[in-house]
Amino acid sequence: MHTPSLADYNNHIDRDDWPGVGEMMLASANKLVAIGADFLICPDNTIHQALPYVTPRSPLPWLHIAEVVADEAVKRGYRRLGLTGTRWLVESTVYPEKLTARGLQFVCPNPTEREGINRIIMDELVAGIFTPEAVTYFQQVVERMKGEGCDAVILGCTEIPLILNDENTPLPTLDSTRLLARAALREAVSAVD
């Protein structure tokens, strides 16, 4: 495992500099290859936007978090997914490309909800602040998505599962970080066989 600080990534993200994020990811990839990695993962949904700048030059293949989530959604029989995450993620093509390729529909938070969710993630959850108000806000967004026909919700940020899970949301959850970790474990075990 290797990662620069979130602040270093955010310096590029705040400037919409995805090639710069990609360079940071490639630097990590090269360090991991040097210590014997067989494949690469990135548990941060948002910075998957930089993968198009990374994969052509990557020394190893990457498991894509949105592909893993799409596979699990299909496996569970879901057809229309709510997408939660940072505003950068929900305004990107990271999930839409992978979901539509698998025949899945999706609903994103509206612009006001995006800003509310982004604020909670970046100002509270990243800082270890967990409030009942944040839980309620997410629950309301998920309830609206349910009203738009969603049958599950993607927890598309590493921090969201700190406050949301299947027991406290109106829809079943697809915890992207947990699903990626399980896919990485399967990949690692299959490489040994």
SSE blueprint:
Layout (H helix, E strand, L loop, with lengths): L5 H8 L4 H17 L16 H4 L10 H12 L3 E5 L2 H4 L3 H8 L3 E3 L3 H14 L7 H16 L4 E4 L17 E3 H17 L1
Parallel strand pairs: 1-2, 1-3, 3-4
Number of strands: 4
Taken as a percent bin, the fraction of beta residues is 5-15%
Shape: globular
CATH architecture of the largest domain: 3-Layer(aba) Sandwich
The parts where pLDDT drops under 50 for at least 5 residues are: none
Regarding CATH, which class of the largest domain? Alpha Beta
Can you tell me about this structure?
The protein is an alpha/beta fold and 193 residues long. The chain has two domains: 6-62, no CATH class; 65-176, Rossmann fold (3-Layer(aba) Sandwich), CATH 3.40.50.1860. Helices cover 52% and strands 8% of the residues. It is built from nine helices and four strands. The protein has helices spanning 6-13, 18-34, 51-54, 65-76, 87-90, 94-101, 111-124, 132-147, 176-192, and strands spanning 80-84, 105-107, 152-155, 173-175. The protein has a four-stranded parallel sheet, sandwiched between helices. Helix 4 (65-76) runs parallel beside helix 6 and helix 4 crosses helix 9. It is globular. The mean pLDDT is 95.
